[in-house]
Amino acid sequence: MFQRKIQLLITYCLALSFILSACAGNGAITPEAVTQEPVPATQEPAAAAQDLAGTVSFMVFGDPAELGAYQALTAAFESKYPAIKIELIHIPGQTDYRKRLAADFAAGNPADVVLINYRRYASLAAKGALEPLGDYLASSTVIQLDDFYSEATLPFTWAGKLMCIPQNISSLVVYYNKNLFDQAGLAYPKDDWSWDDFLAAALALTKDLDGDGITDQYGLGTEASLFRLAPFIWQNGSNFVDSANEPTRLILDEPLAFKATQWFVELQTKHHVVPNQEAESAEDSESRFQNGRLGMFLNSRRGVPTYREITAFDWDVAALPRGYVPAGILHADGYCMPASAAHKDLVWKFIEYANSPEGQTIVAKSGRTVPSLRSVAESPAFLDPSAKPANSRVFLDTIPFIRAVPVMETWVDIESIVGEELERAFYGNAALEEAVQAAIDRTQIYFKEETK
Questions:
Q1: pLDDT in tens, 169-193
Q2: How far apart are CA 301 and CA 93, in angstroms?
Q3: Do residues 391 and 413 share a domain?
């Protein structure tokens, strides 16, 4: 009898060991599994990889230099998972990409993986057009939520669910032509430079080089948009909406917000350090910067792969000039999975890889992103002193006080309308007071729709 009990006990232990081993192989976490040898972050059980086979379509936008980053990413993924093929769909321009994205979702046939900015995914999430990714991430043995900067993941959270995995956590910075600074006898921007310092540099860099009365070289280039204006409003101790979490109206007429808006608009209308509407139409500011005829340009990290092709002059990046309150604005795109994706396990495998240390390192080396993974952001893949910009650290220094615009179904409409009115004032086609009031009046219906 005693021997029979011993045999039953041994059989039970073996069965329990088999069950726990199988669960661990499927990504389940048990107290007993904690004592096992940990799986390296970029590895997984061979059986899981062998079970996956098929094709995943992946749609991206960007210049040829940006495209190269995604080509390298997909090639590395296919090398790791030979049975899964990635169909890379490239739309060069952002505007055309958004149109294609909207049309594809409307038709019910979007790509399996799409890149969407945090300002633009809410309407899709509200319609149930996106597959929530929080549960996938929680079950991953490769990446976990705490691996990412929360400043990047929180804006992609809709109704308590993580909808997309952010690939980057960029911010607005000042790209500057070091050669033009040298020629003007200007010191390079410091981390704590002020609005006055910024304006003084822009004035010194704006020149009529041939004496014909026409400006040939401008000190600054920027688009007239709320997304460019926003950090300066925050820095001035105000906001552009009445509530960051549940906005009901624009408050661009609030004194401190209006003062910051006026300062921004007068860069063109009063100080003329920014190209006027005719000059901007003839040659946009980004092209002027690349051609060496613009001292400073406001942009996020996404321009770096293209700017690295510049050979005629040296350039670097600096933090935005500081106001009363430190503030930067979040630029983040996320890998999103449409709810209509037929093979979600394959789609997740690619999204997981793209956001693994291995995947993010590939894209970071191209210069395209400020990695959303803390470990990669602090690695030589991003902070490579031999690769431009030399001052990449500025992107990370901004993260503690970076802010996001509201995540709303109607935010795209609101931002677009404000941009139209701001542009009228920026190029002297309307008084600032008139443009601000028009922006407030025209957007009110979209705030009401959001609160229904």
A1: 999 999 999 999 999 999 999 999 9
A2: 16
A3: no
